[in-house]
């Protein structure tokens, strides 16, 4: 039987989520709309004037900032911010094509994880499209290092994440999450991991006008050596699981599912995007290739699975 993951997908129906923006603290809404094969993930602001109306592809080369979250284009015009949790849910569940309509510059933070996005996608289900899925296969190692932190992409027969973090506070310390990233693993082991921060750092952000929507409802707050959230953490290592969630979302900005191993140490949004820039700077050096699953045929007796070399150029869309 042909593996469902060999075919491109989209959401089976539109679905809307509402909440607040974690930095603005104002109401925010996002609607996921079905899209044709080959569309990819595309962001569309519904609140901007026609002269600013430009759809933003969910790709690394449209990232403009990574300091506090992943930002695409210019949010003051037609861009969007805090896209990583939605991107993680889409990639984690194997959604290839979606139009993402937003009524403002910021994605709703929901509970600080990707759980609400997963639930919304599960609510409407996925629709299989009649075109084979394309993958970006890593053929040679690519590495990026800075200030003692590093990340790398390595050849691997699947999709795997090995993420290590290290914080001075003993509450977090050194943690590692390592697993092949299947939809089942993402849903059960990663999607519910919430964003986190130390109270003293959040107070600095408040003073700067950021994180106005941050609360115990959408983040894990760490003060000294204790968690302030009454319910505690969802896992003892929720911190590294959330960093893994962020990595899944940021690497989804490759534009295609990656067949390879992503390994990192003390990396964040900036380094996750930097490794993609490093990868694509090596186009033509046989470091990666675009491969495609066989197209689905409604008639005929032969079902094929697996990957074949793409019959068209190495563009990423």
From TrEMBL:
- Pfam families per the UniProt record, alphabetical: LpxC
Cofactor dependence: Zn(2+)
Keywords carried by this UniProt record: Hydrolase, Lipid A biosynthesis, Lipid biosynthesis, Lipid metabolism, Metal-binding, Zinc
Q: What are the protein's GO molecular function terms?
A: metal ion binding; UDP-3-O-acyl-N-acetylglucosamine deacetylase activity
Catalysis performed (reactions): a UDP-3-O-[(3R)-3-hydroxyacyl]-N-acetyl-alpha-D-glucosamine + H2O = a UDP-3-O-[(3R)-3-hydroxyacyl]-alpha-D-glucosamine + acetate
User: Pathway, according to UniProt?
Assistant: Glycolipid biosynthesis; lipid IV(A) biosynthesis; lipid IV(A) from (3R)-3-hydroxytetradecanoyl-[acyl-carrier-protein] and UDP-N-acetyl-alpha-D-glucosamine: step 2/6
Purpose of the protein: Catalyzes the hydrolysis of UDP-3-O-myristoyl-N-acetylglucosamine to form UDP-3-O-myristoylglucosamine and acetate, the committed step in lipid A biosynthesis.
Q: Which SUPFAM superfamilies match?
A: Ribosomal protein S5 domain 2-like
EC identifiers of the protein: 3.5.1.108
Catalytic positions? Answer: 269
Per the UniProt entry, what is one GO biological process?
lipid A biosynthetic process
**What highest taxon heads this organism's lineage?**
Bacteria
In its UniProt entry, what is this protein called?
A: UDP-3-O-acyl-N-acetylglucosamine deacetylase
| Sites where the protein binds Zn(2+) | 85, 242, 246
Enzyme class of the recorded protein, top EC level: hydrolase
Q: Which family does it belong to?
A: Belongs to the LpxC family.
Q: Which GO terms describe its cellular component?
A: membrane
């Amino acid at each position: 039987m042909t593996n469902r993951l060999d075919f491109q997908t989209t959401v089976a129906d539109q679905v809307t989520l509402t909440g607040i923006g974690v930095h603005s603290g104002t109401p925010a809404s996002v609607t996921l709309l079905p899209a044709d094969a080959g569309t990819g993930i595309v962001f569309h602001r519904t609140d901007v004037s026609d002269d600013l109306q430009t759809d933003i592809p969910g790709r690394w080369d449209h990232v403009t900032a990574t300091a506090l979250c992943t930002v695409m284009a210019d949010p003051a015009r037609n861009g969007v911010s805090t896209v990583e949790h939605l991107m993680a849910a889409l990639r984690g569940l194997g959604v290839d094509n979606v139009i993402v309509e937003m009524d403002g510059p910021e994605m709703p933070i929901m509970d600080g994880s990707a759980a609400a996005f997963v639930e919304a996608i599960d609510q409407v289900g996925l629709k299989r499209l009649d075109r084979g899925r394309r993958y970006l296969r890593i053929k040679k190692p690519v590495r990026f290092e800075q200030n003692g932190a590093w990340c790398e992409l390595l050849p691997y027969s699947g999709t795997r994440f090995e993420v290590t973090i290290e914080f001075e506070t003993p509450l977090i310390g050194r943690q590692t999450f390592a697993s092949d990233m299947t939809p089942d693993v993402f849903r059960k082991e990663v999607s519910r991991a919430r964003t986190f921060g130390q109270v003293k750092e959040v107070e600095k952000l408040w003073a700067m006008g950021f994180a106005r929507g941050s609360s115990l409802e959408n983040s894990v707050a760490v003060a000294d050596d204790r968690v302030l959230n009454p319910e505690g953490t969802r896992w003892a290592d929720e911190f590294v699981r959330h960093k893994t969630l962020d990595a899944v979302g940021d690497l989804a900005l490759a534009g295609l599912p990656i067949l390879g191993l992503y390994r990192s140490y003390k990396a964040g949004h900036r380094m996750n995007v930097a490794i993609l820039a490093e990868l694509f700077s090596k186009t033509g050096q046989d470091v990666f290739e675009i491969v495609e699953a066989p197209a689905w045929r409604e008639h005929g007796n032969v079902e094929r699975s697996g990957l074949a070399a793409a019959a068209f150029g190495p563009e990423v869309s």
